[in-house]
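Thread: sanity check for a docking pose with zinc ion

Original post by kr_44:
Hi all, I'm comparing my docking run against an independent structure prediction. Below are the sequence and the ligand SMILES. Could someone generate the full complex and paste the C-alpha cells? I mainly care about where the ligand ends up relative to the chain.
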Amino acid sequence: MIRVLFLAGSGRSGSTLVTTVLGQLDGFFAAGELRYLWQRGLVDDRPCGCGAAVRDCPMWRPILADLPAHDPAGIAQGLRTRLRMRNRLRVEPHPDDEVIAALYRGIAEHTGGAIIVDSSKLPPYAVLVRSLPGVDLRVVHVVRDPRAAAFSWRRRRSLDGDDRLMTRHPVWKAALLWSVWNAAVLRRFGRGAYLRVRYEDLVANPTLWVREIAAFAGASPAAGLPFTSEGLLTLGVTHSVAGNPVRHRTGAVPVTADDEWRQGMSRFSHAVVTALTAPLLPRLGYPFGRRTLP
Ligand SMILES: [Zn+2]
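Reply from moderator J.T.:
Ran it for you. Here is the predicted complex with zinc ion included:
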C-alpha cells in the first residue's frame, strides 16, 4: 500500500506549515505540492525545499530516474485541463496516470514506505490520486478563517525569488475561492477517511494536533515531535516541491497565530468576505464577527 496523506483546502490556510512539521517526523515524507512537480519542478526548474534544483536534488533524482519515459510539459498541460474545478470533480482516466502512479510508487520505494504528505490542496487532484492503483489516500482538510486567508492573499510575497509567481487576489475573489474549494472538499471527502484541522487550533496547540494528524495517518510518532518547550518549531531541511516559499525555512521557527488581519483588515473587506463565505462559516466553526475563537 502506498500511503498518501493529502492536505486539501484553499490557499493560504497553513498547509505549508503542516507539511513542513510532518516532514520532521519519522515515517513521513513531506513531498509538497506534487501536482506542480511537472511544471514548476521540472519545466520551470524551481528549487526543491532543500535549495537544489528538483532534478539535481539527491532525494528526487533517483525517484525521477526510475519513472517511465515521459514529457513533464505534456503531463503539466494535461493536469491543468483535467483538474478544472468546473469539471465537477469528475476526473477521467488518462495515459499520463501511469507516470503519476509510478511517481507515488517510486517515492514510497525510495523512502522505505514513508507516508507521503502531498499538499496539493486541489480537491479534483485528490480524486485523481485516490484512483491510482495501490494508493491509500487519507484527507486532512486544513481550514483557516476566510478573513485571515483573504488578508494574506493580498500580501506580496515572492515565490522562490520570483515576484511574479505568487498570485495575489482581491478579497472577493479570495473569498469565492475559499468557499468553492472548501465546499468541494466537504462534499467529496467529508465522509470516510477525513480529518479537519483548523489552522487556528493547530497554532494554539501544535503538539496535540500534530499527534492527532500522525495518528490519523496511521503512524505513531513515539517521540521526536519537533517542538521545544518555548513553542518553537525546530525545522530541518525538507524535500518538498513547489508551494509557499516558507518551506525553505530551517532552524528554530516560532509557531504563532498570524492574526494581523484583525487589526489590518478594513470593515468593508471584512464584510465582503463574511457575506461571501457565510454559508460555510458556522459549519467550520467560525464566527461572523471579528472576535477571537473560543
Ligand atoms: Zn531536495
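Residues 48-50, 52, 57, 59-60, 239 surround zinc ion (CB under 6 Å). Hope that helps with the comparison, let us know if your pose agrees.
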